[in-house]
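Loading example: each entry is read as two labelled lines plus one structure line.
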Amino acid sequence: MVIDKRKEQIIVKQIMSGNTASMKEFYDIYSGYLMVVCARYISNHNDLQDILQDSFIKIFKSISSFKYLGEGSLLAWSSRIVANESLKFIQKNEKLNITCCPSWELPDTAEEETDFEDVPTATIMEMIRALPIGYRTVFNLYVFENKSHKEIASILNISENTSASQLHRAKCLLVKQINDLKIR
Amino acid sequence: MKDIMNSQWLDNLRKRIDNYQERPPEGLWNDIESSMKASAKHTKIVLWSKRVCAAAAVIAILLFIGYRISDRKAENMPLAQQIQKQDNTGNDRLSESKITRDLTIKHDNRLSINNSLLSQTLSLAEPKNDTTKENLDEHPEIVNNLTEDFSLESKKEEHKEDVRSNVSNQHKVGPESDTERKSKPQNKDMFVKSPKSKIARWATNIYASNISFRFDDQYDGYGNVLADESNEIVGGDIENSSYEDILLQNKEKETYTKVKHRQPMTMGVTVNYNLNRRWSLTSGLTYTLLRSRLHSGSNEHYFHKDQTLHNIGIPLSINYTLFTAGKISLYASSGGMVEKNVYRKMSTDYILDNDVKSTKNESGHLDKIQWSVKSSLGIIYHITKTIGVYAEPGIGYYFKNGSDVETIYKEKPLNLSLHVGLRLLAGK
């Protein structure tokens, strides 16, 4: 995943000058990771493709504002763009659903945290993607973007309590699903 | 305890997902590529329309100045103007035809250059002679005065402009001049201004500049410098494989990059417009040739890039004449220039074991515009009244234009130059 610093800088420079071959190179290296970033937020396949496309275009167009801060900084910077684009989409299209309760019964009490060593990552990804939109968004912001509940509250225009409880429920739901998987 | 466990569990989850990749949707890259190309085209269109607007603005300014100048030329010929005015009123047609005739007969060759414009304008009116002949006798004194003045003045080559003022003055003696002065008060100003027009308003400069010293730059590692700014897709298979071969072969070797920039060669045609005796403006068109060579890699395995840039520029500067002693004048000049690359050629040789493995030629042009400012000191020697040679050493600063392309401007923004040229003065 981490590519040589010099190569990374070459790619960045070439993309800046509009070199399509370098854009393809960037795409080949990073699209798998950026796909996951977007998929964590967006469950609909068509939306996912649209948002990813917009994100890549944004990355290529604004790459001049990228500052090299060490290994992996290009991926981190690009991931942030993808996350922002996804969030923008959610805010625009799913605003009402963020605070809506899911239609099924939720466990109120936390189940015992179990390790998920044996569970394939693809399965975990599916579980995250299956979370109700509100839970999923808060979960993503808190766990992957390192946002505090206060920040999440202001981003999603919800209360801090809602953010905290949604995160809690999201986690419970994941734990339960992992446990269920293990029992089977 | 629970909280620590809590964050640990989430942390593990995050790490798992962070290192996870999924295959992006089929056809995503094609969509991205086509919309990047479409937007590049759009930016190009926007960019070009901006350029066209800028060029139009420059042309408009030049035309405006030109228009003002041609106005001034007319001002310098109050006689012709006045005559035409009279003609319009239909009051007195004699002077026109008579003066024209006198001028043609009396002025000698020495006057011809200076008065050519005058006689030109006058001769335009000549066909009307026939209709005006009958008025000739009404004001014989004008004719006489004019004739006298011309024959006198034509001997004094150095005071050509006096001819005009004298002619005008004499002309005013005529009975209609009073009413004329009243009805056209601005004409008075023209007469007052006339002596000032002693200085040539216009001058054309043709110059060249090329100080042939080189500027070398060397650093460790590879240079992707002289990078491609063209929108064409770069990276054919040959290039990539050759490039990768070089990288591979040099894995254990010490690599460096060396860039040699040649001093820019500039040629230009500019026009000077004198605001007054001391101040003047210069603008025009310049052509600059920039050449660079890049050597990147180790001593055995490397690539060479030869870059040639052809730039067209529009300079604008203001000049101040410090002093004039005889035929020599010294002046200071300060201004700026906007430059645009019109053609760029780059050939790359990929060399493995000192053997050229492949060569690649590219051409295109750069989109970024180069701005610069410059100050210089000039000395001009007037060979004749209309021709002068000048030398203008100067120092210029080239602003960063955000381009990746290595040029001497980028490497050495502060640049010395020496313009040597010919100045043709015109338009008294």
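DSSP finds nine helices and no strands in chain A.
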